[in-house]
Specification:
The chain is α+β, with helices and mostly antiparallel strands. The chain has helices at residues 61-74, 158-170, 253-270, and strands spanning 15-20, 24-34, 37-40, 50-58, 79-93, 96-97, 113-126, 133-139, 143-145, 154-155, 175-190, 193-196, 203-206, 212-223. It is built from 3 helices and 14 strands. The protein starts with 14 loop residues before the first strand and ends in a 15-residue tail after the last helix.
Length: 285
């Protein structure tokens, strides 16, 4: 949790938390038998023996947000939205299915195959209901090199995403940004193109396959908020990397934040129009 010093007088604030888990759903897929093996349906094998298989999966992220807003219309949050974020949680391990507990703070990872889902965490300040609607806008890097049988695709750099976000913020009114999140979305390659599956909330991780990801930007914002948000004319960002203190050692997070605070004080003194929107953490494993 990132905090700033309170300015002026006001009542004490209390935080509330709401977790949203995507709903399970069952999809049916046709498979065919060819040479003794069952495979997904293909026009070549239409005359062979077929059967229907059922798979358990989850609603997509955008569908989950739409269902959440539908519920909030009849049962609004008791307060004002402070922050919205996505978090990954384990749902399956091999064939074992267990209930997702969004309040759990740890899990084990022993199996060579597991499945993860995305959940939403909504932090809010307790108070009268405001009837806000929660929305999501994603920015994906543009592909600059198509994949080939022997080569990987290439994408535009991170500053390009910042430029897209800045242009969108400058030309969008009536919203209140509550979080900007860097997210690693699963990518699958097809013939000379790729699919960035950022909406998928059912990810399979296996030690037998190679997983490829693309870094995207997610902007969570609300509409219908009574809190007036100042328009963003010029948006920019600053990256702070932890300083290496040894061969395999880096400075702590508190030491990095000390440098961030020093930079904020310097910028605040030199610019009267500077306003901090949010601080995000980027994990590269």
């Amino acid at each position: 949790m990132w905090l700033v010093k309170k300015t002026g007088q006001g009542p004490q604030q209390q935080l509330g938390l709401m977790n949203v888990v995507p709903e399970k759903k069952i999809i049916e897929m046709q498979s065919v038998r060819s040479r003794g093996l069952f495979m997904m349906e293909d026009p070549i094998y239409r005359n062979t023996i077929t059967r229907t298989q059922s798979f358990v999966t989850y609603d997509g992220l955008m569908e989950t947000i739409a269902k959440l807003n539908s519920k909030l219309k009849s049962n609004p949050l008791p307060g004002t939205v402070l922050n919205v974020e996505c978090a990954m949680m384990k749902t399956f391990e091999f064939l074992e299915d267990f209930k997702v507990d969004p309040d759990s703070t740890c899990y084990t990872s022993e199996a060579k195959m597991k499945r993860l889902t995305q959940i939403l965490r909504i932090f809010y300040i307790l108070g009268p209901p405001t009837g806000e609607e929660i929305c999501l806008k994603e920015f994906q890097p543009e592909m600059t090199k198509r994949p080939t049988a022997m080569g990987q695709p290439a994408f535009r750099s991170w500053p390009e995403l910042n430029g897209q976000l800045g242009f969108w913020l400058a030309n969008t009114s009536g919203i209140r940004v509550v979080n900007i999140q860097a997210f690693s979305a699963r990518m699958t390659k097809r013939r000379e193109t790729v699919d960035i599956m950022s909406d998928c909330t059912d990810e399979v991780q296996s030690s037998f396959t190679t997983r490829e990801y693309v870094k995207i930007l997610r902007v969570f914002y609300t509409t219908g908020s009574p809190i007036k948000s100042q328009p963003v004319v010029n948006f920019s960002s600053r990256l702070f990397l932890p300083i290496r203190t040894g061969r395999q050692m880096f400075e702590s997070m508190s030491q990095t934040m000390f440098r961030v605070e020093a930079w904020l004080r310097l910028v605040d003194r030199s610019s009267n129009s500077f306003r901090l929107i949010i601080i995000i953490q980027i994990y590269d494993l």
